[in-house]
Write a structure and sequence with these properties.
alpha+beta, 6 helices, 19% strand
């Protein structure tokens, strides 16, 4: 990652922590995140507004993964996502990992925003069901 990417990541992390501490997001924070993430922030905000983020938690371990609904009008794909590290979508592999044009895909940003605001749907499954779900990635 370039120095500017690293600096952007540090600024974004500071903003995420501020949002998490208040469970609210200000216009200034949204602007900063939009400056860092660009169009992916716009898509992420739409996904969160449409309640498109679920947190799937395994019992009894408490381990969890986010499931984020895509925006495609033709089909509503669901992507398993770890906000800091991974998304199963094409954009994550192409724009984030391969071309390094983005810091995160919109699904990762949506999961992080929803987690920071507590604005996700909670789904509880057994640890076995969670393991099966993750094995399909």
């Amino acid at each position: 990652m370039s120095e500017s990417g690293s600096a952007s990541s540090l600024v974004a992390e500071t903003v995420w922590k501020e949002i998490e501490s208040t469970r609210t997001v200000s216009d200034d924070q949204l602007w900063t995140l939009h400056f860092i993430f660009g169009k992916n922030m716009e898509g992420a905000a739409r996904i969160v507004d449409q309640r498109g983020v679920s947190r799937i938690s395994g019992n009894p371990s408490g381990r969890f993964v986010f499931q984020v609904t895509g925006e495609s009008p033709r089909k509503k794909d669901h992507y398993l996502c770890f906000p800091h590290h991974f998304c199963a979508c094409y954009s994550f592999f192409y724009d984030v990992l391969n071309r390094r044009q983005q810091l995160s895909c919109k699904h990762q940003i949506a999961a992080r925003l929803a987690a920071s605001l507590g604005a996700y749907v909670e789904l509880n499954v057994s640890d076995e069901e969670l393991a099966l779900l993750l094995s399909k990635i």
